[in-house]
Specification:
globular; mainly beta; 140 residues; 79% strand; 10 strands
């Protein structure tokens, strides 16, 4: 089942001894229920590049896939370290997520998905991230 949704993504990045950085994104997207899994798909523009994002949302595991202007695979498993990748102009970088918390709540017409994790790129810690997705039925 595919349902048109409005998506709000709030990203919070925390680094030691610095104020948190907060970014918000609003987009039109689709929520897809397939084989007991929920997938949130949306498109965003960044530096004149189109980026397609798919978020597989679960109670204890999740996956963020981005393709187009940015190619990235970020896997999450609660209380576990996972390995993903980020393709940059310098080549493919290995990234690692240590997931602290995953929360997924879906209702009839909307849902919330939150993942908190520590991100490491090529062995270097880059910060503690919180992704908060909220979606509601309807289009922009």
């Amino acid at each position: 089942m595919n349902t048109q949704v409005k998506v709000k993504l709030k990203t919070t990045i925390r680094q030691p001894n610095e104020e948190p950085e907060i970014y918000e994104l609003w987009a039109s997207g689709t929520i897809i229920e397939k084989r007991g899994n929920s997938y949130l798909k949306y498109e965003e523009m960044q530096d004149n590049n189109k980026i397609n994002t798919t978020v597989k949302m679960g109670e204890t595991e999740a996956l963020v896939l981005r393709s187009g202007g940015v190619n990235m695979r970020l896997p999450f498993l609660e209380n576990s370290q996972q390995t993903g990748s980020y393709e940059s102009e310098y080549g493919v970088l290995m990234v690692s997520t240590m997931t602290r918390k995953i929360a997924f709540e879906k209702n009839k017409n909307d849902g919330n998905f939150v993942v908190q994790y520590d991100l490491t790129v090529s062995g270097q810690p880059v910060g503690e991230y919180t992704l908060e997705f909220h979606y509601t039925e309807g289009s922009q």
